């Protein structure tokens, strides 16, 4: 949430997959579970597993104000759990937006 701000996570609601920037490299994630409230086409709590199955990501979001074509993410937590069981917790903010296709 503090400078420098960087892009760390991207998902499309219909794909069942996400990309995360981890150690400066994009990593593919697969949705394993969703919980919480629906905002837009997303859930407030989503759980992912890495493509190789060795680590996981839990993303919890608190929806914020509505925008034209989307909604702010007021606050959130992105928790990665490595194969060794260690967790890294990142506070996150962002925007949920729709691109007409």
Structure description:
Helix content is 0%, strand content 67%. The chain has strands at residues 9-11, 17-22, 25-39, 42-50, 56-67, 70-81, 87-97. Strands 1-2-3-4-5-6-7 form a seven-stranded antiparallel β-sheet, with no helix packed on it. A hairpin with a 2-residue loop joins strand 2 (17-22) and strand 3 (25-39). The radius of gyration is 13 Å and the shape is globular. The model has no long low-confidence stretch (mean pLDDT 86).
List keywords for this structure.
about 100 residues; mainly beta; 7-stranded antiparallel β-sheet; globular; about 65% strand
Sheet with most strands: strand arrangement: 1-2-3-4-5-6-7
Taking all Cα atoms into account, the compactness measure Rg is 13 Å
Low-confidence stretches: none
Helix content: under 10%
Mean pLDDT level: 86
Structural class: mainly beta
Question: Which of globular, elongated, flat, extended, rod-shaped describes the shape?
Answer: globular
Largest sheet: 7 strands, antiparallel
Compute the separation of the termini in Å.
Answer: 30 Å
Q: State the total count of DSSP E strands.
A: 7
- How many separate helices? 0
Order of helices and strands: EEEEEEE
Strand content: over 45%
Give the topology.
Layout: E1 9-11, E2 17-22, E3 25-39, E4 42-50, E5 56-67, E6 70-81, E7 87-97
Antiparallel strand pairs: 1-2, 2-3, 3-4, 4-5, 5-6, 6-7
Brief summary:
The protein is an all-beta fold and 101 residues long. It is built from no helices and seven strands.
